[in-house]
Backbone:
């Protein structure tokens, strides 16, 4: 989808998600992208108003599926009949919200820096940044 539509939908659904969660964010977009495939959101701390069904109804989703902490919704693509945009909502624990948002914002960066970081004994994953100490690694 073109950037103007992406940002319009992102902002619209971001506002809608705040009616269901205390914390909601979107990973940083890659610089100068000329098209976007879907909408990604990260949320934590559901409010009492949240249920997958209530959210589906609120965003006019025609279908949703859940897979390992992420729920994907098919929402109408504006002005294109029988076309949809995929909205992915990853719900994490409140204490992981900032790290998850940071980690997903820089997903490509980890692929670039990973080999150098590993050589220095550092490992990053979706749970945190770790220092590897080979001498005690077998004990952990």
Residues:
């Amino acid at each position: 989808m073109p950037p103007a539509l992406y940002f319009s939908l992102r902002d619209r659904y971001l506002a809608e998600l705040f009616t269901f969660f205390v914390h909601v964010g979107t990973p940083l977009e890659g610089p100068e992208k000329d098209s976007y495939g879907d909408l990604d959101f990260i949320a934590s701390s559901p409010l009492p108003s949240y249920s997958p069904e209530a959210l589906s109804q609120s965003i006019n989703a025609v279908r949703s599926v859940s897979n390992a902490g992420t729920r994907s919704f098919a929402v109408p693509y504006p002005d294109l009949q029988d076309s949809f945009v995929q909205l992915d909502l990853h719900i994490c624990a409140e204490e992981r919200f900032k790290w998850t948002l940071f980690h997903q914002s820089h997903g490509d960066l980890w692929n670039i820096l990973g080999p150098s970081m590993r050589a220095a004994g550092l490992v990053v994953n979706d749970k945190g940044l770790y220092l590897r100490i080979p001498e005690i690694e077998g004990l952990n």
